[in-house]
Write a structure and sequence with these properties.
Layout lengths: L4 E6 L3 H11 L4 E8 L15 E3 L12 E4 L6 H9 L5 E2 L8 H15 L2 E3 L8 H12 L3 E7 L2 E2 L1 H8 L4 E10 L1 H8 L8 H4 E9 L5 H9 L9 E6 L2 H7 L5 E12 L4 E12 L2 H21 L4 E3 L14 H7 L2
Parallel strand pairs: 1-2, 1-4, 2-3, 4-5, 5-6, 6-14, 10-11
Antiparallel strand pairs: 7-12, 8-9, 9-10, 12-13
Helix pairs in contact: 1-10, 2-3
């Protein structure tokens, strides 16, 4: 393994900026360049010594990059970019449309295997870290129920989806968990909860001039995979209010496994809980992406190819430390 992993970023929005900051905190990584669909001259990076290239020229640099972190949106960007770039680079992305992960996995697997590369998909905190904790909970407490709650916080994927609705100038979406539902789960009750009973969604939208508010609202609340299964409220506000009140990106949530151990004659309730409270959703998601970029590089160096998820990655591969150091310091 080389001493420094050469990393590039594709897409420089909130997630791309977070990835640049996370790479700067990683002593074994170097950000070699950023690719953008915008005019490279118009893109201002945190560290302006890093070059910016046009996305159309990305194939030119395939021999200069160990891992490419894709920072586009799940609704339109990644389904188009992922299968192409998986045939050129080791890639890591944060595709977060849960229902479409199996088909997206298949779309990345074939080109990555053909190119001898790793395509790490759906990396973040959910899907991602929460996925791992759901697996741990079910494996350790096979008799029980798993519950996932998100928020209160701003969802990047859902916000990206509302911004792509015709007539939307600016928009964000907040996910709000039900405190009543969380309390019932923590108590060991193991309730049966519908999607609507666990969360509400709230959208704050600035309309384009002459846009039809009713049409925008209807398209949002009926959007499959994002809003159709939830009670969704759409608020229309002006740009000044949006700029003042909706620029921060907090988020978080909980994975709770409520189960039982013992025999039919003597059972004990057991509850496993993993939680996150995030001051910046994109910065934290980017930090997870960077850790898994390291793992993708190591896995490919060891001869592995094809599509992978966080469930396929040994924890030791995430760290820049050696296995011996980890056993001594963390075990």
């Amino acid at each position: 393994m080389t001493s420094v992993i050469k990393v590039a970023i594709a897409g420089y929005g909130n997630l791309g900026r977070g990835a640049q900051a996370a790479i700067a905190q990683s002593p074994d990584m170097e950000l070699v360049c950023v690719f953008s669909r915008r005019d490279p001259a118009s893109v201002t990076l945190i560290d302006q010594s890093v070059p910016v290239y046009a996305m159309d020229d990305i194939e030119t640099y395939k021999d200069d990059i160990d891992v490419l972190i894709l920072c586009g949106g799940s609704k339109s960007d990644l389904p188009e970019q992922g299968p192409i770039l998986a045939g050129l680079f080791n890639i890591v992305d944060s595709f977060d449309t849960h229902a479409k992960i199996p088909e997206y996995f298949a779309a990345l697997d074939a080109p990555a295997k053909k190119a001898g590369k790793i395509a790490m998909l759906s990396v973040g905190w959910d899907p991602g870290l929460f996925s791992i904790n759901r697996l741990y909970g079910e494996a350790i407490l096979p008799v029980g129920e798993t519950y996932t709650f998100w928020g209160k916080g701003l969802s990047q994927g859902h916000s990206d989806a509302v911004r792509r609705v015709h007539g939307v100038k600016s928009g964000v979406q907040y996910t709000i968990p039900s405190e009543t539902a969380i309390t019932r789960v923590r108590s060991g009750e193991q309730p049966t909860l519908s999607t609507r009973e666990k969360h509400n969604r709230e959208c704050y939208i600035v309309l384009e001039d002459n846009a039809d508010a009713d049409a925008v609202r209807n398209e949002i609340v009926t959007m499959p995979d994002y809003f159709a299964d939830y009670d969704t409220t759409v608020h229309f506000i002006d740009q000044q209010t949006f700029d003042r009140d909706h620029q921060k990106m907090p988020h978080g949530g909980f994975v709770i496994r409520s189960g039982v151990s013992g025999t039919d004659h003597q059972q004990n309730n057991q509850v496993i809980e993993f939680s996150l409270k995030l001051g910046s959703n994109p910065e934290f998601t980017a930090s997870v992406l960077v850790a898994y970029a390291r793992a993708a590089y190591k896995m490919n160096l060891a001869g592995e190819t094809g599509a992978k998820t966080v469930l396929d990655v040994a924890p030791t591969l995430l760290s820049p430390k050696s296995a011996a150091e980890l056993r001594k310091e963390l075990l």
